[in-house]
Amino acid sequence: MTSVPLPPLSAALAQYRPSAAATLRFRTPSSAPGVSASSSTRARRFSVIASAREMPWPHVLTVAGSDSSAGAGIQADIKACAALGAYCSSVITAVTAQNTVGVQGIHAVPEKFVGEQLRSVLSDMSVDVVKTGMLPSAGVVKVLCESLRKFPVKALVVDPVMVSTSGDTLSGPSTLATYRDELFSMADIVTPNVKEASKLLGDVSLHTISDMCNAAESIYKLGPKYVLVKGGDMPDSSDAIDVLFDGKEFTELRGLRIKTRNTHGTGCTLASCIAAELAKGATMLHAVQAAKKFVESALYHSKDLVIGNGPQGPFDHHFELKSPSYKMGSLQKFNPDDLFLYAVTDSGMNKKWGRSIKDAVKAAIEGGATIVQLREKDAETREFLEAAKACVEICKSSGVPLLINDRVDVALACDADGVHVGQSDMPAWEVRRLLGPGKIIGVSCKTPAQAEQAWKDGADYIGCGGVFPTTTKANNPTLGFEGLRTVCLASKLPVVAIGGINAGNAGSVMELGLPNLKGVAVVSALFDRERVAAETRNLRSILMKNAYSRS
Ligand SMILES: Cc1ncc(COP(=O)(O)OP(=O)(O)O)c(N)n1
Ligand SMILES: Cc1nc(C(=O)O)sc1CCOP(=O)(O)O
Ligand SMILES: [Mg+2]
Questions:
Q1: What is the pTM of this model?
Q2: Domain Thiamine phosphate synthase/TenI: where (predicted)?
Q3: What's the CATH class of domain 336-550?
């Protein structure tokens, strides 16, 4: 079984940005329907509609029930798709009266009228992905299957909603049979939680990851291309572990278990996020990873929210709108361009030149370092922590991210922006679990396999070296340009080159022209020198010349 923790918040958020291809085009007021138009206005209206067709918005149709509390159902689906940059149309199968306490009533929409809604949307709008939620009767499932046969879409995501988070039944046994017999064979993915998986398989008991794998395999045999069994309800784990099965391989997806009462609508949201990512063109594994990351981040940011008086509250799908980085115009906590000039400290070198860590960091920032790492191999923990706290202040006030080498404990204690780890340090997924989704994690990689693992583990960037021989790190293999190129080409993450880089050779590294090679990380060329600020400034101007000559 492969183990795939989630990609980092920044990587996931980057995917949430609507691409240029997803830019909505609005009708001008003069072309609004029902307004009589001159021929030139008509021509303009036609061209607006035609160009909108050329540039479609990723489109998810949700077929689900309305939740009056807006935490789950249709309302959650629309919010989730909007947050991920997909348009979401809706076919309502039932109207529920519910709140944070439970479900007080269900009013099913007549099957014929569900069919009418489906025809309205599918016959007119270019729907990419259909996502299903509450399907209250076998008749509704049949009507949906007929509509999908008549109007095929690119993908079908089936969230087999049977019981609400409050424990109320939302669809009965005859519906289950129709799911199994008719809908699953049309589905690209089915996303049951352990309770739903158990019900689908005749109330089998599911207690372990191995049980979840067996359940995924059994559901797979009913016809879907992928099965995601969600383990959020499983006890005894600090991680939320889901199992994805594609008919051949089981992939264990780890996420953080966020302690909060606000979990109402997580299943609907996850399935809608998968649908939105598929509509944007993602592969299934990426769609599921991005969806999990979104739900995890939303729960994390909403964990203390109080809406309603019951035991299960809704969460905020649009948490990003409130983040300071969003308000400053950027959705990302980590900007890969920050890797441009990466200053990595060395206490031995700074001591030799009579400088404190704090003065060394100040000077590097003054010279234009864009990110700093404290790599203090010999410092006592207490002394290191004090210096790190002072550096955090300096870096915060300059807007330069500060990472700690190896020491997750120190990073947590000083509230650094992140941690850099190597292949023999704590695994990146464990670092992510400890630091949470909002911090930056860098991983040293020398091979494509390590780069792939770093991405799976939720790293934000890769440090690749030694590009040249170095005396700063003992017994460090030299990869040369070819090694660096191989890792960069294999990496889905931004890369910073390291090892023996200085003002004399930095230009040649950047001249490799590798799109994800974002900069150079340097120790001795800055800190084993008398004038740190001047050396940094000089290196920066060399890198800048190279960057401008390439653009
Ligand atoms: C940016 C950057 N890249 C690579 C390393 C090396 O990390 P690691 O392999 O863990 O070795 P140590 O630095 O811990 O000796 C790095 N620190 N920074
Ligand atoms: C810390 C470190 N990591 C490396 C790697 O190859 O992963 S090379 C290295 C030392 C870099 O120091 P200098 O800039 O003085 O050569
Ligand atoms: Mg290390």
A1: 0.56
A2: 341-526
A3: alpha beta
Q: What is the 3-state secondary structure (H, E, C) of 231-256?
A: CCCCCCCCEEEEEEECCCCEEEEEEE
Taking the CA of residue 473 as reference, the ligand 2 atom at the shortest distance is 10
Q: How far apart are CA 421 and CA 404, in angstroms?
A: 9
- Known catalytic residue: 358? no
The helix (run of H) or strand (run of E) holding residue 539 is: helix 532-550
Distance 473 CA to ligand 1 centre (A): 9
Instruction: Tell me which residue has its CA closest to atom 1 in ligand 1.
Output: 463
Kindly give the distance from the C-alpha atom of residue 105 to the centroid of ligand 2, in angstroms, as a whole number: 64
Report which residue type is found at 296: E
Q: Which ligand 2 atom is the nearest neighbour of the CA of 500? A: 16
Burial class (CB in 10 A: 0-12, 13-18, 19+), 412: middle
Binding pocket residue ranges, ligand 1, CB within 6 Å: 342, 344, 373, 375, 405-406, 420-422, 425, 442, 444, 463, 473, 496, 498, 521
Tokens of 93: 């199968």
Q: Which fold has domain 58-186+195-202+260-327?
A: UDP-N-acetylmuramoyl-L-alanine:D-glutamate ligase (3.40.1190)
Ligand 2 residue neighbourhood (C-beta within 6 Å): 444, 463, 465-466, 470, 472-473, 476, 498-501, 522-525
Length of the chain: 551
Task: Clarify whether 310 is annotated catalytic.
Answer: no
Q: Using CA positions, which residue lies closest to atom 11 of ligand 2? A: 499
Classify residue 259 by its DSSP letter.
Answer: -
Beta-carbon neighbour count of residue 204 at 10 Å? 13
Measure Cα distances from 200 to 249, 262, 321, 409 in Å. Answer: 21, 26, 38, 44
- Per-residue pLDDT of the chain (551 residues), as tens digits, is 444 443 333 333 333 333 322 223 332 233 333 333 333 433 333 444 444 445 568 999 999 999 999 999 999 999 999 999 999 999 999 999 999 998 999 999 999 999 999 999 999 999 999 999 999 999 999 999 999 999 999 999 999 998 776 777 777 778 889 999 999 999 999 999 999 999 999 999 998 999 999 999 999 999 999 999 998 877 655 567 899 999 999 998 877 778 889 889 999 999 999 999 999 888 899 899 889 888 988 888 888 889 999 898 999 999 877 755 454 444 446 889 899 999 999 989 999 999 999 999 999 999 999 999 999 998 899 999 999 999 999 998 888 999 999 999 999 999 999 999 999 999 999 998 898 878 999 999 999 999 999 988 889 999 999 999 999 999 999 999 999 999 999 998 999 999 999 999 999 999 998 989 999 999 999 999 999 999 999 999 899 877 655 44
Report the separation in Å between the CA atom of 521 and the middle of ligand 1, taken as the mean of its atom positions.
Answer: 10
Question: From the candidates 175, 178, 191, 263, which is the catalytic residue?
Answer: 263
H/E stretch holding 483 reads helix 480-490
Map out the domains of the chain as residue ranges. 58-186+195-202+260-327, 336-550
Q: Which atom of ligand 1 is nearest to the CA of 444?
A: 4
Q: What's the CA gap between 275 and 279, in Å, rounded?
A: 6
ipTM for the complex shown: 0.98
- Based on the residue annotation, tell me whether 266 is a catalytic residue of this protein: yes
Q: Give the number of whichever ligand sits closest to the CA of residue 408.
A: 3
